[in-house]
Amino acid sequence: MELRYLWTPSFNRPRMVAAWPGMGYLAKISADYLRRRLRAKAFAEINYYQNSILYKDGVAELPSIRHTFYAAPREEIIICVGEAQPTIPEEAYRLARCVVDVAERFSVRRIYTMAAYPTDYYGEPNVYGVCNDERLMEVLMRYDVKPLEGEGAVNGLNGILIGVAKQRGIEGICLLGEIRYANIPQHLSSKAVLEKLSSILGIEIDTAPLVERARRIDESIRRRLLEYQREEEEAYKREEEKAYRYVS
Q: Where residue 146 sits, what CATH number does that domain have?
């Protein structure tokens, strides 16, 4: 696991937003959208190697997975976006510690992560929250983020990171957006999470393009469902005609 700085940005007391791919691609969609809107510049990266190789025509390569840190100094925000999550729990913990090392170097006062919360929601997706300090519950309530009740787990780096941050004395909040489908990009859920996050951070982000992306995906799904329905109906008719021909 290698940490490399491309240049050193200047901050006072920045906030960090970190995200890795997960269900509904919610976290990565949100973080990538945020960094592009803020025109954040890459300043550091962690290269992480999985416990496997890739080969083509018998020739092997050791691929690396990149986790990039972006700086938005005017907004006092660091954004970390990973290409993939480690498959081994111990390696996920190591990576989280490395990310927190970067946070400590720049005196980050709070880390925000994002995750998906699968439900069969109706209407607009809700946003829930988990924090690593009971005092942060007031922040969730102030911005109308519903704390997750009862007991449960937030799996993956989007959850582990705020746990490691707590060990180092850094505040952490994970925002979880409701999603319907785990394997389809959930842009409306990303929009809901980003609107809460931008309010907490005190910045303005235009989320209208996410609505348009969600509309295009919905149209694509509807077209495919109609095609599938037509194919099923045609197959059923062919079976009926075949059965009719064999009636004596």
A: 3.40.50.10900
* 151 plus 46 within the same structural domain: yes
Taking each helix axis as running N to C, give the angle between helix 208-245 and helix 187-201, from 0 to 180 degrees, rounded to the nearest 10.
Answer: 170
Pick from 160, 158, 179, 157: which is nearest to 168 by CA? 160
DSSP of 86-117, one letter per residue? -SSHHHHHHHHHHHHHHHHHTT--EEEEEEEE
Domain count, the chain: 2
**The two structure tokens encoding residue 50:** 């999985």
Give the C-alpha separation, 99 to 248, whole Å: 75
Burial of 29 (0-12, 13-18, 19+ CB in 10 A): buried
Q: 26-72 pLDDT, tens per residue?
A: 899 899 999 999 999 999 999 987 777 888 899 998 888 899 999 99
Cα separation of 74 and 111, whole Å? 17
Among candidate residues 28, 1, 34, the one with its CA nearest the CA of residue 15: 34
Predicted model pTM: 0.84
Q: Closest Cα to residue 107, out of 194, 236, 12?
A: 12
Quote the CA–CA distance of 111 and 113 in Å, as a whole number.
Answer: 7
Q: 3: part of which helix (H) or strand (E)?
A: strand 2-5
Do 129 and 115 fall into the same domain?
Answer: yes
Q: Does residue 42 contact residue 68 with C-beta atoms inside 8 Å? A: yes
